[in-house]
Amino acid sequence: MKIGYISADFGVPIFGHKGASTHVREMVNAFRRLGHEVFIVSPAMHIGKGEAFALKKGLNELASIPAPFFKLFEYPQGRQDNTGGLFFLQVPQAALRARMLAELDKWDHLRGKKSRVKPELRNQLYNLTLFESALAFFRRHTIDFIYERYALFGMAGIRIARELKIPHILEINAPLADEQQRWRGLEMRELARTTEREILCSTDRVLAVSNALKEFALSCNAPAERVAVLPNAVDPERFCAQIDGAEVRSRLSLEQKCVIGFIGSLKPWHGLESLLLAFARLHASHPHTHLLIVGDGPMRELLQANAVKNGLAETVTFTGNVHHCDVPRYLAAMDIALAPFAPMEQFYFSPLKIFEYMAMAKPVVAAQIGQVQEIIKEGETGKLFAPGDVDDLLRVVTQLVEDANSRKKLGQRAREWILAGHTWDHNARQVVQIVSYLMAAHE
């Protein structure tokens, strides 16, 4: 099949470090491994903030992308024989609309403070630009269906699908109107929520990454028969237990250490403040332990300051961002992998990091919250602790530090669980089956 993949979120760079970027690439690669061609449309063909690539429209060539990032769409040796084609269409905001939005900067300057009006209007106006460009692109290549990552105010994908009379599949990773209001502020609250409901009710299938998001979609009156749960997953060949972490251990002076690790964006909800408190006490009684934090984010300065304050400057390593193709080597250097989420009322995430930990046969210690407690079976595929409870976190990690045999068994069973049906290829096959059903129903 020919799949039109739309990621209309300006904050999800296709070649970026964040989990959302990884999710896009992994689903695209999984579709291609099944032999399908994928046509990616996005405004954000770049690594991260301020690092844009000049891609040629509609061509499956990546000559303008630096070599380390090209690898993000490559596979380990010997896996590309029947791989489907990969095409890109970068769709920036139309020049006239961009000039209109620039006027809002002057308004913010006149008021003396910033508002969220500009990015919200940008997202709305972008629907017009995306509709015009992507419709022509998909029509030219005779796309069979559209797979879209939900973006706030993102109506264009559904409109394109209706124009082309093809199925539209919507992947939803968060209740974006509520999330936007909670973490960044939302000026056009009612319009955002109304549009969100319209999108969820109009698509042919909602694929929610967690049960909490399925319930959210149903609360927006999305028809129950059109809503399914498809959690995140992992590529078990890219993330496998045979990868050697010796180079990372040597470079970071971690030889002979028991390495407790975390990987991800350093955001408030990841519970890293509790992890530092627990590790300070752990290290006092087990001086051979070391904490490895891989990733970057708004909490980094505070976390580093706390590490220094608690005398942990030499026993906690912050790596900053690493390319996703390098993440397996850092995971291989870890003895225990952590997902210490903070307590939250609405935990709707499907944590990508946990699937990657498990695929690499790492013993996982995670907060007992949301989908996490569905993924991790206590004492069999990992260990759980009460979210935010430093004492409980310390208890569980200490047990594993002191018991290498338990670490090995938990890791082995975790990888077996992954291989049983929690891979990106499995997810891609599920999507194709849904689309095949939709096509047959409309014949």
Report on this structure.
With 443 residues, this protein is α/β, with parallel strands linked by helices. The protein has 17 helices and 13 strands. Helix 3 (95-111) runs antiparallel to helix 4 (117-141), helix 4 runs parallel beside helix 5 (156-164) and helix 10 packs across helix 15 (390-401).
Short recap of the structure:
With 443 residues, this protein is an alpha/beta fold. It is built from 17 helices and 13 strands.
Protein traits:
7-stranded parallel beta sheet, Rossmann fold, alpha/beta, 6-stranded parallel beta sheet, 443 residues, 13 strands, 14% strand, 2 domains
Task: Indicate how many domains the architecture comprises.
Answer: 2
State the low-pLDDT regions, or none.
54-64
Determine the number of helices (DSSP H or I, runs of at least 4 residues): 17
Radius of gyration: 22 Å
CATH topology description of the largest domain: Rossmann fold
Shape: globular
The overall average pLDDT, rounded, is 90
Tell me the CATH superfamily of the largest domain.
Glycogen Phosphorylase B
CATH class of the largest domain: Alpha Beta
